[in-house]
Amino acid sequence: MVVGMKFENAAQFRGVLRDWCIRNGVDLEFLRNEAAKVTAKCKSCEWRIHASPIQGGPTFQIKTIKGEDTCARAYDNKLANASYMQKRIENAIEIIPTIPVQQLKNRILSKCNVDVSRFKVMRAKKEALERIRGDDAKQYELLWDYCETVRKCNPGSKLLLRKVENYDPPVFDRMYFSLWVLKKGFLEGCRPIIGLDGCFLKTVYESQLLVVCGRDGNDNMFPIAMAVVQVENRDTWGWFVGELLDDIGGMGTNKWSFISDRQKCIVEALKDLVPESEHRFCLRHVYENFKMKFKSVELKEYFWKAASTANKREFDGFMKKIEELDPKIKAEVETASEWLRKINPQHWARSHFPVQSKCDILPNVAVHEEIPQGSQAPPPLSQEQPSAKAATRGRRQSPQTTQPLAPMQQQVGYQGPRNASLLGNVNPASSSVPATRRYNKRPSISEVLDKMKEREKRRQQDS
After folding, report:
1. 399 assigned to some structural domain
2. Which run of H or E residues covers position 257?
3. Residue 20 domain boundaries
């Protein structure tokens, strides 16, 4: 800042002066702040600046700068308000909407040399999000128009919106969202297994996002339908799963397998709607509950071995090993094996899974894998995140799909849990056959089916 510098108007001068004072650590106060005259000084020393318009126009010019700023740097500068910070973090928030507040605080400190409170950063982040995607309250007002637009542009899509009539005006209650292309892709290209999960939407109007996902031939999660509800309970999950089954034609049948995180409300809802269907529990959540009582590393090892093996005899052997590692000492104390046997192995052990789902996955990562950045977005943005991610992933992988097998199965040396026992040994280090011959020769469909029948026959004999 030097005498004689010119600015388009007073607003531009104030903005430049604010930025200069923040970067140089000057704690400024305005003595006169008018349209025709701006005078300011440092609170801690005699430095002051004066600017006014040039005669005959709005152009502002610095007329005088008195003294020299000799005071210590002010890191807690009052000029760095939420509006000032919002302009400097907007680009970062647009790229990563879920960027933590502490990370933004550190970014402001490194770029502007000013230490601001977390509350100010939160306000700045809120202003930036509103500027990027609009006001959250107005998003809800547009939901009816949004549903009609989607139905018109995507015939066959199912969107349901329910409101609470007891209020004036009525307020949002829940919303179901399923695009026709997602339903078609699931029915024609995915295994008959459905993962159920939910997460909080961290907006001003707290709600929860429920998502159901399938698994395609390339082992990717494939979103089928989403719902936004006020609370996650038996009623909302029952409503959501009921609408889903009605949408995919599965109501009253047991052709679908489900996997969830063992929430009581999901278990009860599935028992009411599809009592005969297979319901698996996410092994990651089962183990989190298991290790709260049993923290032994050896127990952890045999727990995962028992869950992962596809052989019932091996499963019984691992369970016996768990009994030996945690023997019964007191009658009232529950052992690790007793805790596990309370949960039917059909829910968590691969050796007891039926083969109809063509899938033996153990963890359920439906929501947390599909919406890494959607938890702070209101509807309908939160519901578009999973479908947009699936479309982007499919477009990226489509050039690789030049053979009947999916890209993952085309990889040399791929050992997936579903095809390792059918294709034989595919480890290059353990075979003397040249790689060109070993990987060009693939089993025929009849050979694969024969091995599947043999494996199923052995399972029946074991049981």
Report:
1. no
2. strand 257-260
3. 6-66
